[in-house]
Amino acid sequence: MHLYIALISLNKVFELILIYRYSLYTDIYTHSVWLHLSAHRAQCNQHGGTRSFCTTSSHLATATIVMSRLAVVFGGSRGIGRAVSQLLAQRGHRVVVLSRNKEAAQATAESLHGEKHLGLSCDVSKEENVQKAFETISKTCGTVGYLVNAAGINRDALLLRSKSEDMLSVLHTNLLGSILTCRGALRSMLSHGGAIVNIGSVVGVKGNSGQCVYSASKAGLEGFTCSLAKEVATRNIQVNLVAPGFIRTDMTAGLEKEEAVRRIPLGRFGEPAEVAQAVLFLLESPYITGQVLLVDGGLQLAS
Question: Which GO terms describe its molecular function (predicted)?
Fold first, then answer.
């Protein structure tokens, strides 16, 4: 009887010790987070409480609890790719910006929040360029955690008026280029896991007159994304596709905006930053793979 009572008392002592240690850990963690947020709130107040600075500070505070990864963004020097690079840097990730124009890639990398970002030149339609880029990344930066394929071109024309060289250029850049970059990134991701987001298009889902080749390249990218997602799921690698609609970039600069806006239920063009938010969501979602996320203001609903 005395032994039984002693055992019960000993168990109570252990429970009290565990509760105390847990409470102490929770208090320390909560206090450190409170201090961090307080520092950013003070900075925000110093800047007059402006929304842009406070929003950036909020992102930076959140980034402290997100594991920093090496993010590689092809087509990262302008448009959607640039917006993705900026958002990833704000989240605390190290970013490698790749573009055909080396100066543009380096300028974008230098403009990003944080340090040690890298700008490289790469023509994704050329296999040797892609291979060389990943060799450089592996030597100077380490293991790739995120890959975003935002490099793309269009050569819009009716099929009967399309030149063969333009067709090949679109297919090699938009489809083959993403296939090559995914293969290059997988060599780094297979042992550590990772996430890939390809940038497609709403016309790859619903088609569009005068964009047969461009639509084919983006529809092919959707099929590739779903197939690759199945191949690498067991290696903890997620592969998804974001399909934007009319986004305010250089690629849509020549469109008749008033006519295009009438076709969009939300009544406006999207911004690159809005697409970047969708990309970030998929990159940081470990239980989503093989999906197509439309970011088109409801354009796919229109007839």
Answer: oxidoreductase activity, acting on the CH-OH group of donors, NAD or NADP as acceptor; quinone binding
